[in-house]
Each structure stands twice: as structure tokens, then as C-alpha cells.
Write a structure and sequence with these properties.
The chain has a single domain (37-324), classed as Glycosyl hydrolase domain, family 43 (Tachylectin-2, Chain A), CATH 2.115.10. Strands 9, 10, 11, 12 and 13 form a 5-stranded antiparallel beta sheet that branches. With 340 residues, it is mainly beta. Helices cover 7% and strands 38% of the residues. The chain is globular and about 50 Å long. Strand 3 and strand 4 (77-84) form a beta hairpin. This is Glycosyl hydrolase family 43. Residues 1-20 form the signal peptide. Pfam families: Glyco_hydro_43.
Amino acid sequence: MRNTCFLILCGLWFSISAQAQKATDKTSGNPIFNGWYADPEVAVLNDSYWIFPTYSAKYEEQVFLDAFSSDDLVHWEKHEHVLDTAIVPWVHKAMWAPSIIEKEGKYYLFFAGNDIQNESGPYYDASQGVKNKQGGIGIAVADHPGGPYRDYLGKPLIQDFHHGAQPIDQYVFKALDGQYYIVYGGWGHCNIGRLSDDFKRLVPFDDGQLVKEITPEGYVEGPTFFIKNNTYYFMWSEGNWGDSSYRVAYAMADSPFGPFERAGTILEQDPEIATGAGHHSILHVPNTNDWYIVYHRRPIPNQGRDHRVVCVDRLFFNEDQSIRPVRMTFEGVQANPINQ
């Protein structure tokens, strides 16, 4: 009898535990994984969801990139140090804002390194001389989204300051005509460049310019693009990344070169939930009408400059294809298996 009761109690415990687990797994929750991270890049790669964020810490501690993968947007697996300064020796700090893209079976991970400065920059130190400009935007490559990665060029792809844009916050995408472009830029300027087929260089435009400036009103940093119904959506972050003014705005155009007229703010602080929401990317689940925004925000109460976490919420459109303001949540999103 005692054994029977024990087995019944065990059965009840497992049943209750399973129900509790099922209840907690209904949504992703926000943040979607543990740790301080920012600038998340989301993509569907190798039949899984992947997120590549910046490790949010002091610049001198930002010497690696982690990645996270999921089959359903709810359960995330951490892949530690998919890239670090041991692999990319020309970077010694401030490894930022990864951007991932697949091309011909290879996975190219673009990143910024060293927070390089020029004479007009806020942290330019004349005593450092050329060291101020040693860094920029680089590329790593692998046969699998989780690596192992290797330094693709052995040097930055973009190191110079063009049109006043600091070479950070890169995003790479394929245009409707099949051409791959890189958009990037901090310090209130955004540039677009045309990538060679092998991603080893920028291809000058017909007028001889290596990159063109496409800065819209209010732009500060964190550019990203997506295409819907043959329309280019250009999105960026405004305000100050270190405080509650951080937010996301967007524009729409028929060309990746614009002109881009600011259409409005679609993500900003909610004092009841979080502040400093920005530097995001967009996920479209293949073969569905499901769209998501993956972004970082500052929890309340905030524990410091680098206390930023990665979150996901739904993205919706109006009948005219403009974007509705995003409602930040603690719940996150429901499970959405990639192979549905």
C-alpha cells in the first residue's frame, strides 16, 4: 500500500510539474534568455531561429560574441564565444552589433571592433595617434551558424570614416535585384555600400563613390532593412543608447537608396515595463504572415549603463503597410515552431 501511494504521489507530482512547465512554456517571456546583451541580430539559418547579440559590458570586456538558437522562439540554446579576439587578433575591445547572412552554404558574420575614432569623435585621444583608427567593420565566416568561425579578411572591410559615419552597426542584406549591400554608421550618419560577390571588398558606384550616405531625419545608429511587398523598410535607432531616450523609427521607399522620409516612431520606452528600447532587427517567419521585432531594452530598476537585455514582441502592419507602434510586453511571444 505504501509503495502504491508513493507511486500515485509521484505520478501526481510529475503531472503537476509537466502542467506547470507547459504553462511557463506558452510564451517566450521577456527577456528571452539570461544575461546582459544588446544589439540583437535575428535570422532564420539552417532551419532554426538564431540571435547574435552584443555582449553588454565595459568596452574592454567586449572581446567575444555569443549566439543563441531556437526551434520555436521560446526555448533558446546558448552557443558561447562563437567569435572572439583570439580568432580576430586585430580587435582588442568593443566587438559590437553582429550581422549574419548566409550565401552559397557559408555563413558570414559581420561585426565592428575597437570603437575607432577620428578627430571629430567624442573620444578621440590625440596621444594615441593612429591607434584611434585601428579597427572598423570586419567579417568572420563558417560552415555552420554556430561556427567555428575564422577571420575572413584578416583586416577590416571598412576602416575609414566616410561621410562622417563611424564604421559600426553594420547590417547586410540582399536586395530585390540580387545585389548584396551593407548599411552601417554611427555618429548620426548612415552609409550604404555595394558588396562584391565574395564579400571581400566594396564595389564602387558608377560615380566613383565607395559608399553613399542615406541618413534620414533623426538617425543616430543601429540601421536595419527588411523587404515586404517589394518595399524597402529602413529602420534605425534615435536618442542616446545610454538612457531612456533610445527609440526606433522607420521609413519606406521603393529603392535601398531611398529617399527615406521618416514615417514615425514604432518602439520606445514604456515606464511600466522598460526604458531605452532600441537597436533591433526584424524576423519574418518563412511562408507565414508572422513578423517579430527583436530588440534590447533596460529593465526597471536598471542596474547600470550596460544592463540591457534581449526581448521579442510581435510586429504588425496597417492596411497601408505602415508599421504599427510596438507594444512591449513581459510575456514575449507564443511558440512558433520553425517547421510548421
